[in-house]
Description:
Layout lengths: L10 E3 L7 H9 L15 E13 L6 E3 L10 H4 L6 E4 L12 H10 L4 E5 L14 H16 L7 E4 L16 H25 L4 E7 L4 H14 L5 E6 L4 H19 L6 E6 L8 H13 L3 E4 L12 E2 L3 E2 L1 H11 L3 E6 L10 E7 L4 E7 L3 E8 L3 H4 L2 E9 L13 E8 L6 E8 L4 E8 L13 E5 L4 E3 L2 E4 L15 E4 L7 E8 L3 E10 L6 E7 L5 E5 L9 E9 L2 E9 L5 E9 L4 E5 L4 E3 L3 E3 L10 E4 L7 E8 L3 E11 L2 E5 L2 E3 L4 E4 L2 E9 L5 E14 L4 E4 L4 E2 L4 E4 L7 E4 L9 E7 L3 E10 L17 E7 L5 E5 L9 E9 L2 E8 L7 E9 L3
Parallel strand pairs: 2-16, 3-4, 3-10, 4-5, 5-6, 6-7, 7-8, 8-9, 9-10
Antiparallel strand pairs: 1-21, 2-13, 11-12, 13-14, 14-15, 15-20, 16-19, 17-18, 17-20, 21-31, 22-25, 23-24, 25-30, 26-29, 26-31, 27-28, 27-30, 32-42, 33-36, 34-35, 35-42, 36-41, 37-40, 37-42, 38-39, 38-41, 43-53, 44-47, 45-46, 47-52, 48-51, 48-53, 49-50, 49-52
Helix pairs in contact: 4-5, 6-7
Amino acid sequence: xxxxxxxxxxxxxxxxxxxxxxxxxxxxxxxxxxxxxxxxxxxxxxxxxxxxxxxxxxxxxxxxxxxxxxxxxxxxxxxxxxxxxxxxxxxxxxxxxxxxxxxxxxxxxxxxxxxxxxxxxxxxxxxxxxxxxxxxxxxxxxxxxxxxxxxxxxxxxxxxxxxxxxxxxxxxxxxxxxxxxxxxxxxxxxxxxxxxxxxxxxxxxxxxxxxxxxxxxxxxxxxxxxxxxxxxxxxxxxxxxxxxxxxxxxxxxxxxxxxxxxxxxxxxxxxxxxxxxxxxxxxxxxxxxxxxxxxxxxxxxxxxxxxxxxxxxxxxxxxxxxxxxxxxxxxxxxxxxxxxxxxxxxxxxxxxxxxxxxxxxxxxxxxxxxxxxxxxxxxxxxxxxxxxxxxxxxxxxxxxxxxxxxxxxxxxxxxxxxxxxxxxxxxxxxxxxxxxxxxxxxxxxxxxxxxxxxxxxxxxxxxxxxxxxxxxxxxxxxxxxxxxxxxxxxxxxxxxxxxxxxxxxxxxxxxxxxxxxxxxxxxxxxxxxxxxxxxxxxxxxxxxxxxxxxxxxxxxxxxxxxxxxxxxxxxxxxxxxxxxxxxxxxxxxxxxxxxxxxxxxxxxxxxxxxxxxxxxxxxxxxxxxxxxxxxxxxxxxxxxxxxxxxxxxxxxxxxxxxxxxxxxxxxxxxxxxxxxxxxxxxxxxxxxxxxxxxxxxxxxxxxxxxxxxxxxxxxxxxxxxxxxxxxxxxxxxxxxxxxxxxxxxxxxxxxxxxxxxxxxxxxxxxxxxxxxxxxxxxxxxxxxxxxxxxxxxxxxxxxxxxxxxxxxxxxxxxxxxxxxxxxxxxxxxxxxxxxxxxxxxxxxxxxxxxxx
Length: 852
């Protein structure tokens, strides 16, 4: 296939030092594209934010997900809580449509982590897709069970029944053009709606019901439905339909306006709207695409759930494994931090596909304005108008950061701050923040706060370059096009192309790179691996000695993962080649970043909070966004940080604080002295709070380390434990020590018990290394029905705790899940069991005190 003419040979982003504010924002804040463009650069686009045009309280309604949760604990609590989910849509308890995602089961973790409403897709009780039509009487017997399960569940008031799914297509064929046929089918649907509606209410009188839940918006059906449902007193409490095509980015506003007009015409009180399926595969996991969808939903104050195109349990592609943020997760984390009211945003082009869009919030109590934007490449000027001097003063600090696309299964560290600068408010009350060389797949956040005294610490942005595989020298491989508007349900690819069919012994992709100075560089490879197990390539630099890069499995060859390694390069031009090793790997892009000491400053004024802390922007020094003032005593003031760790290990956490003593809490352990804490791979929720009555002024929580500090960690191979019943050691090429324990569970006697040593009593993290590739084919062409396996973990004579272990995509692919445990000093037993089903294959455990 031909390559897109708009590709350039490589994209380089560099950081430069500048003293003038404007030059720093243009050159250092958002690094420029140093490659020679194929055509004259386009003029910067303009996006305007009006702080004096409120649109209502921040809803955060568009952060939901269809089958985003697969089990209680998948994703983890640490991945769920920061996103403040407003809705999820799941199947009925015991539904046959998919092997997991049962609404009542997953509601435990959903509500435990502050979730809003659970929509129950009632027809997912059926096994086939489209649903088998066995008649309304058959369906009613199933409705009875679904409603009783929900009505008896804790927090039943937060469940919403969705009686029909896509009735315009399934069972009723309501999209036909012939009016007579349409009316016949419509009337059948209306009769069944009333029958099911009344049956639900008979069992659960306080039920909230959602519908009609069309596959796309149909004004004819919606108008007829509202008029009839009002007359029959069977109106839904929540109106739902789906927006699943690229054209929805253009058409949704018209759909919304039409619906509200139909409501008004029918004399119906406006009701909440939930677009309970939205976006295509090419959108999911991509921050720059998601911001376009979220901006239009938030602007109209509707709820929305991302579609379920692939596997359950990863928030529709926003969480890697069970606990690891990708770029989309960080975008939704930003969305969750928006407080106050949203304000009007005027994009360069409204209601258009794949264009620069944004949303903005304004919180006068926090004295913060936030802008999230993305969806287009190139330059943009973001003008924030009506900057109130009573709130901000005459100068503001602008902090700019980026959430890049890291693939569906690619880890993304905490977004790097690209710029932090003081800006003077213009005579017209506006501030303009220029962004240079934006990436189309990235989302960006701008935070405005009062400037305060002093000079903010400049952002440190290491040199970085990205190289597309399709533009490299390709031997025995093919270029494929992915995830375009015309193929919207193709998976996303950087630049919409990748290189596949690298299945020959001679297959190779050679990248020509150019680096500014000698040193170590982090090399990140966006790849896909559907070989069924770990696959390898041979990495060479300038034709030198080859070393092996191992790629874990991904869902399929276009479902992107991210593999990181390090290369040492001299200044100048080099060839980095990735050649066929074992099995086939698809290559999308490589990134080179100058290696730096791992260090991240998490700003306290942007953290979640408990209690009622105050905000002080008197000083701009340091991070430049001010100080969070935490009162001591019984007020409960605290700052909750989401700390990213690339791997398990010890990290140094240093609060930048003055005033009274401060305590840190992570994974259930609290310390007022030690700053060396054991963190799990992915997200870690860390709370900082006063340790006494004296207030604390907290500027940031600085985290250093890359997980290499493992002093005090004790490892135990699973096969070294006491095995009973059918549990036995098996050989595994990719298992630690070459062996793992299989056949655990599926009977009460099939257990593994390890005796571990604790130097002191207290809270430990137990990192469990496991593999699981159980699947069930439910007959769906586009859903991969993976199954999580559970293990009942018992410490000593304590009560068993059920822990769910997500599918790892392959039996030879091992992931790590951290489980907090309390140990007594000395010897402790840890038992893994599951009397009712198989547990995952167990490779090893590592135990470490949380406080090092």
